[in-house]
Amino acid sequence: MNKNPETLKMIQELSDAIGPSGFEDEAVNTARKYVEDIAHVEEDCLRNLYMYRNTNTGDKPVFMLDAHSDEVGFMVHSIKPNGTLRFVELGGWNTNSLPSSKVLVRNRDGAYIPGVIAAKPPHFMSAAERNGGNNISIQNLVIDIGAVSDQDAIENFGIRIGEPIISDVKFEYDEAHDIMIGKGFDCRIGCAALLETMRRLANEQLNVDLVGVLSSQEEVGERGVHVAVNKVKPQIALCFEGCPADDTFTEPYAIQTALKKGPMIRFLDRSVICSPRYQRYTLDLAEKNHLAIQSSVREGGGNNGAIINTSMDGIPVIVVGVPVRYIHTHYGISSYYDFEATVQLAMAVVKSMTKEIIESF
User: Fold this and answer.
1) Residues 83 and 30 in one domain
2) Do 262 and 305 contact (CB within 8 A), yes or no?
3) Are residues 233 and 335 in the same domain?
4) 22 and 107: one domain?
5) Whether residue 277 is found in the same domain as residue 262
6) Is the domain of 213 the same as that of 110?
7) Which of 94, 203, 262, 309 could share a disulfide with 341, CB 3.0–4.6 Å?
């Protein structure tokens, strides 16, 4: 498969961009430059980014593409007398993956300074602690930036309560094996797929008006999309996601989101039953056009589709996810093949859509 260097650069820049929930500014600014030549772009106070295709006519059904721009992160809760930092989650982390990992903490000057999530050496553990298994909680963890006191942390490091914290991870691409490793693929890989879809459809003759939204604060309760859907007022929507791959820990018969098998569309998670007629339409369309696709039924999880589906008078929605191994940890693993297959599927859905088809859902 041919890979567009400019598209890979966009994925890298989006993955590396800083943007935990509530602090999406850098991620949004990174995305803007890839669509400002093909769309009218607006932004609101929640850092939702709206992209209205330049060739929209205003008299067609509105098709909304959504992806959330925030990534899981942390926030400084307080500073302990010894100079270490207590912190809280922004989004739901796999807490067992946290000790000994490197992070970046924003200080009062806007600089991001390195720190390590502290792990007590075994030399100082009691027998009970050594045999305690995986009973790790955020409340018992701290971040060490190298300060020797709270005064040192405040005066010399510039630490303040309420500042964001992110994973200290840089994007890598193993071209020989088509493997991308980076942070924030939930949902920056979805953001990249949305931007790429809009770019490729920029001059297509469509039966819908296309509006892209990079919504904020999904990881802390789908907050941004509540505002976005009421502003855009779509008749139909497609949500891009970086969805959890299950192919490294699930029995073979139950694998539904494998790497390099194409995008996953979900029938169900704990937040939404995706519009069944629209779901089947998409599966049939993929089969007709020989497009890679996987379908899944999820017992957990949640996404913006649930908010869109039950907004206004009810909006048909599907969720198209790029498989990502180990989301909600510092590192994710994904594939350019799956990214490209996701874009191909989204384009096919948008290009096929008409007012009559939307009304049939």
Assistant:
1) no
2) no
3) yes
4) no
5) yes
6) no
7) 262
Q: Write down the pLDDT at residue 129.
A: 64
Domain count, the chain: 2
Residue 178 within any structural domain of the chain = no
pLDDT at 103: 98
| pLDDT at residue 300, as a whole number | 87
Q: Give the span between the Cα atoms of 349 and 113, in whole angstroms.
A: 44
Q: How long, in residues, is the chain?
A: 361
> Over 90: is that where the pLDDT of 46 sits?
yes
pLDDT band of 189, cuts 50, 70, 90: very high
Q: How far apart are CA 60 and CA 40, in angstroms?
A: 17
Say yes or no: 150 and 248 in one domain: no
Q: Is residue 174 part of a domain?
A: no
Task: Write the CATH number for 269.
Answer: 3.40.630.10
Kindly report, residue by residue over 2-23, the tens digit of the pLDDT. Answer: 789 999 999 999 999 999 999 9
- Nearest in space to 340 (alpha carbons), one of 34, 3, 36, 72: 3
| Other Cβ atoms closer than 10 A to 79 | 23
Both 205 and 292 in a single domain? yes
Contacts of 134 (CB under 8 A, 6+ apart): 96
Q: Indicate the residue type of 292.
A: A
Distance CA 83, CA 150 (A): 4
Residues 182 and 116: beta-carbon distance below 8 Å: no
- Which helix (H) or strand (E) segment holds residue 324: the answer is strand 317-324
What is the tens place of the pLDDT at every residue in 72-106? 999 999 999 999 999 999 999 999 899 999 999 99
Residue 78's domain spans which residues?
A: 74-167
On whether residue 127 sits in a domain, the answer given is yes
Cα dihedral value 75, 20, 137, 116, nearest 10: -70
- Could you tell me if 304 and 274 are in contact, meaning their C-beta atoms sit under 8 angstroms apart? no
Q: Could you tell me if 14 and 112 lie in one domain?
A: no
User: Parallel, antiparallel, or unpaired for β 62-68 and 209-215?
Assistant: parallel
At residue 317, φ and ψ (nearest 5 deg) are -145, 145
Two tokens, residue 127: 């027998």
By the 8 A CB rule, do 37 and 123 touch? no
Q: Which residues are catalytic?
A: 218
CA nearest to 283, candidates 314, 239, 253, 318:
318
Structure confidence by residue, pLDDT tens digits, 314-349: 999 999 999 999 999 999 999 999 999 999 999 999
